[in-house]
Amino acid sequence: MIVSTYSIVACDLAANQWGVAVQSKFLSVGSVVPWAEPHVGAIATQAYANPRYGPDGLALLRDGLSADEVVARLTGADDGRDERQLGVVDANGKGAAYTGSGCLDWAGHRVGECYSAQGNILVSAETVDALAMTFESTAGDTLERRLIDCLAAAQVAGGDRRGQQSASLLVVERNAGYAQLSDVVVDLRVDDHPKPIEELRRLYTLHHRLFGVTPREDWLPLDATLRSEVEERLGRLGYDSLREWAGVENLEERLGDEDEIDPVVLEALRDASDL
Asked: Going from the N-terminus, what domains does the chain have, and what CATH number goes with each?
């Protein structure tokens, strides 16, 4: 299983998030390469991928080993190490990587603060350089957007020399996923698409609309004028309440009390009722 791939494994320590983004000329790359656990670390296993590097590596990180130690332990025990590629970021933001001597050209990696970027069967080293430089230059944005931007920049720089097929984005944070009961902030996969990174960005935009969080200070008061508009638009769509409509549109996670409205919900309602 040769997963010709470029990926970035990274974390945002201030946000307590860890994640992986990957693109490959390989069907459903997200089912093989990315692994992550909050306050533990993140891993990408690729090239002639060893899928055990994911769960075994997370277990080692959970036991307190550093990224460097995990890379050494996993590859040292693997007779197929020459054909493996591995990227790791640990709980402290330390990155480490390994590119086996048998990985197909161009293959290599670049490690920096809070990230490891790696790729194999690439057009050139510029693909991995683009991953690294984009991550370094986008500090301050959300980890999800940074990782997608990294993939897009890497593709422009050359990407996988066999072409494109699939892409994946995985970001974790303790109790920050669905209903604040899941650690998975986002887990999106484009399994087979001519432009998987563009499709991944589209899916992320939709995901953020449904499950993102607007700071409470940016919510709008439902004064008499705005409340009247909301009720009129709901009536136009055949609904008696905002909660009923939001449940159908999967926007219930963005509802609050009856005196305020998330501007994302208002925009979605306006879009729906203007059709």
From this structure: 2-211 (3.60.20.10), 216-273 (no CATH)
